[in-house]
Amino acid sequence: MDKKVFLAVDLGAGSGRIMATIYNGSNLTLEEVSRWASEPVKIGEAFHWEVNNIFANIVEGLRKAKSIYGNAIVSLGIDTWGVDYGLLDKDGKLLNLPYIYRDTRTDGMMDSVFNKVSKEDIYKKTGIQFMFFNTIFQIRAEVEKLKNIDKADSFLMMPDLLAYMLTGVKVNERTNASTTQFYNPFNKDWDFDILEKIGAPTKIFKNGFAECGDVIGSLRPELQAELGDIKVVAVASHDTASAVAATPTQSDVPAYINSGTWSLPGVELQSPIATDASFAENFTNEVGYNSTIRFLKNVTGMWLVQKSKEVWKANNCDMSYKELEAEAEKVEAGRTIFDPDAPEFVMPENMPKAIADHCKAKGLNVPETHGQIFRAIQESIANKYKYVFDTIEKLSGAKIEEINIMGGGSKDAMLNQFTANATGKVVKAGPTESTALGNAIMQMKASGDVASVKEGRKIVADSFDIKTFVPQK
Question: What is the pLDDT of residue 386?
C-alpha cells in the first residue's frame, strides 16, 4: 500500500512539536516535522498561555508537513498536558488567554472549594487525586476572584480549544476532561452537582464529548484551501493517555510507567476505583481511550537527577549519565533508600544537599559522592515504583505480570534494571516516543487502518526496539 501519514500535534508545558507517524501497511516510523517553544507570558500579575502563537506554530508546522508528505497526510490529532482550558463567549471569542496551571490565582482555592463540597465527596465522584492546580480550583478562582465567568458561553480544555480553532467545532474529549476533577467517570459526564456547589455556570459545559477515534471535523475553509482536506481526529488528548494507548503489550491489565522528569506508574482498568483506601493513598483515576481508567500515582522521577546535575555543572563537574552510571556501579547496592516524593525535593536550591540533609534527618546512610547520590536516587525511585505497584495489586486485585516503561526515561538502563529488581517483574522498555505513537493509533482507528487499540499496540511492538530487563538478585 502507499504510505499514510498521521500527524501528532504533541504539546508540552515548555514546547510543542508535530511528529509524523508514517504507516506502510505493517510498520510505523516517526519523523519530527517541527518544534517550537511555548513559554507562558506574564500579563499584569497573571501567567497565561499564548494560545494564538501556539496555533500559529501548529499551522506553520502543517504547512511544512504538507510540503514534505503532500497528499499522504490523512489526519492530525492534538494531545496536551491536563487541567488548563479556555472560556469562549457567545461569539466564539476567548474571554482571555488561557491561564497557566501554576498561576497564583489558585492560592487559597482548595480551602474555598472544600468549604462548598467535601474532599471525600469530590474523590468518590471523580476519583482524581488532589493537586492545587486542578481545574476545579481554577474554576473556583474564576468565580471567587476574577468574577467574569458569567460572560462565558463555552468551556474547552486546551486540546479541544486548539481543535476548535482549526475546525470551528466545539467538543470536549474525555481523557483531558477527566483531569478537571469535576468529570464523573462513573456517569461518564460532567458532575453538575460539584459544579453547582462551587458556583460554576453549568450552561458552559454543553458541547458534548468526543470519543477517541471520532473525527471532529475538517479544517476551516481558509485552512483547507491551503492545506487540503486534513481531518482533525479526537485522540486520547491528555498526553499520558496517548502514551498509555501505545503501550506495546497484549496483556489484559497493562501495567506501565510513563517515565521522565516525573513518573506515572499505573495500570489500565475497565472501571474506576474510588474507595477509602485509594483515597488514603491518593491514587487517581484518569480516563483513557474508550473510557478505560488509568489508575495511577504521580511519583517524582528524573527530576532529582536533573536538579543534581545542575548543581554539579555549576561547580564545574558536568558528568554525563554514562559517567554517573559507571560511578554508581561501584557503590554498594541498597546503601541509601529514601522517599523521592518527600516535600524537601519539590524545589530545592541545591538538590544534592537536600538529599543529604533528608537522609541525615531520617538516620539513613548519607550519600556524598556523585556515584552514591546517583545510585541512591535510582534505587529510591525503583523502590517507590515497587510500593506503588504492590499497592495497586492490593487495591485492584489485579495481578501484574510485566511493566512497560515508556517515554524519555525508558532509555535509562540502570533505572530500568533496578525497577525489575525491586518489583520482581519483567520490565519492557520503550518506545521513547510513546505519546506521539498513541496519538497516531487513535487516528489510525478513525481511518480504519486498525480495528482496535490492541491491534495498534501490536504494530508498535513490531515497529520499535523494545528492551527486556529480567529481575536480578
Answer: 98
